[in-house]
Amino acid sequence: MKKLLCVLLTLLLCTGCAAPTKKPPETSPTIQTTAPTEATSAPTEPTTAPTEPAEPEPPTLLDLLTTAIRPVGSTMYIWGGGWNEEDTGAGIEATTLGLPRRWANFARQQFPDYDYKNTRYQIHDGLDCSGYLGWAVYNTLETEDGRPGYVYKATHMARILAELGLGDYIPAKSMDRWLPGDLMSMEGHCWLVVGQCADGSVLLLHASPPGVIFSGTKRPDGSPSDATRLASEIMAEHFPQWHASYPDYARSHEYLTKSSALRWNDATLPDPHGLRSMTAQEILALLFPTT
User: Fold this and answer.
1) How does pLDDT run across 216-245, given as a tens digit for each residue?
2) Which residues pair with 263 in a beta bridge?
3) Residue 151: pLDDT above 80?
4) What is the pTM of this model?
5) How far is CA 90 from CA 128, 132, 178, 203, in A?
6) Spatial separation of the C-alpha atoms in residues 53 and 47, rounded to whole Å
7) pLDDT of residue 96
């Protein structure tokens, strides 16, 4: 009996001496080796500089002639047209970009017996010679309304524009050729060269009674020339209604012998199209391209 009690006591003591269960080793916290990502990324810098707006192309001699034909066959000759009320310089039409509808509306109301002497100083209804060239120059050189204009007395217009630095002044006695775009002044009148023909005659643009038209200079003996023929053909083809009412486009040879010139410099009106080496016929092909 004593032996049995000893065995039971021994078993109980051994069970209490069981080895304790080991705890798993603690793990060290993870150390972040890269910088944390921002919630919003910084804006990406542009890889190239922003493109600058292109500089507008400078006006050319071709632009001057293209502009000058816009009132042809739709604008009457008005004494004082293009001038201001004070008759001291450019009026509102000659310092405004575009072609006023009023000019064409007035022209449509006229008849073949139109006499400019009956419409003197109706300055908003049409153009006189210097008002016309002033309008054409402004609409070629300027890009906004209301700047100082280019309307001067016809006799002195070429010289004054040269004094403004727009080109060279060539007196009548020194003229031996007439180049496209030359702005010409003679006593009481001014006009614009379109081109010279093989026979020496000149095709021109001007405001001359009854209105804004192409004209051609006659031969020295007063007979018709290549330029007078060209002027008549171009008016008949492109301005037929005007041509039917006002068919005379011949002008005296004295236009060539008594007119001084403003010849534009390249800084003001360059000639990238080579007009100065073209005949009048070749220039007309540029002004009135066929499709």
Assistant:
1) 999 999 999 999 999 999 999 999 999 999
2) 168
3) yes
4) 0.82
5) 12, 10, 27, 26
6) 18
7) 98
Q: Domain residues of the chain, as ranges?
A: 61-268+275-285
Query: 134 with 94: CB under 8 angstroms?
Result: yes
How many helices (H) does the chain have, and how many strands (E)?
9, 7
Residue 131: name the closest of 86, 172, 69, 78 by CA: 78
Burial class, 154, CB count within 10 angstroms (exposed 0-12 / middle 13-18 / buried 19+): buried
Residue tagged 């017996």 (tokens): 113
Q: Dihedral, CA atoms, 155, 156, 162, 165, nearest 10 degrees?
A: -140
Calculate the CA 88 to chain-centre distance. 27
DSSP codes joined into one string, 37-98: PPSSPPPPPPSSPPPPPPPPPPP-HHHHHHHHTTTTTT-BB-TTTTB-TTSSSB-SGGGSSS
Helix (H, G, I), strand (E, B) or coil at 243: helix
**Quick one: average pLDDT of 204-215?**
98
Average pLDDT, the chain: 87
pLDDT at 33: 41
* Tokens (6 digits) for 240: 């037929």
Cα 93 to Cα 61, 130, 221, 268: the distances in Å are 22, 13, 39, 22
Token duo for residue 25: 């080793």
40: pLDDT strictly greater than 90: no
Average pLDDT over residues 191-219: 98
Q: Does the pLDDT value for residue 120 go beyond 60?
A: yes
Q: At residue 199, what are phi and psi to the nearest 5 degrees?
A: -85, 10
Number of neighbouring beta carbons within 10 Å of residue 271: 17
In which order are the strands placed within the sheet that holds 167-170? Answer: 167-170, 260-264, 183-186, 189-196, 202-208, 211-217, 250-251
| pLDDT higher than 60, residue 249 | yes
Task: Give dist(CA 123, CA 238) in Å, integer.
Answer: 26
